[in-house]
Amino acid sequence: MAAKQELLRQLDEAHLDFRSTVEDLDEHAFDTKWLDKRWGAREVAAHITGWHGKLASGLERMSRGERPVPEGEDWSDTQSFNDTFAQHAKGKLRDEVLSELASAVERFKHTMEHLPDERFEDGKTATKMVDGAGISHFHEHAEMIRAWRKREGL
To answer: pTM (2 decimals)?
Structure first.
């Protein structure tokens, strides 16, 4: 299987795994702040959505032969992006937040499909972006949510 197709498969699996940790939460549980007492599943999902959108734009720029990060923007300042992404979910219902996540994943996958397969070999920027914003990111937060649910008996 080509590297890009394998990454797409892993991304789908990671997304489904993450969704399995939050789909049965009611609005109250979805909104409960447990991560640094500032974030709950709502903010975590919005945070992942935001990074998918940001990096999908980067993949789109790469498909045009440009650098993934726009001129004058610094993606290494992750906390300000994280806060902005989490704030975006404020006041939204669980289903809306999860729908936005699903849409962001689909857009991300669509942008991946427009890049040549060789951009997804080991060590390539596109591969790092897919793993960082997608696969590993989903796994990291799914484990955090599972641990919280276990502590709370949910």
So the answer is: 0.93
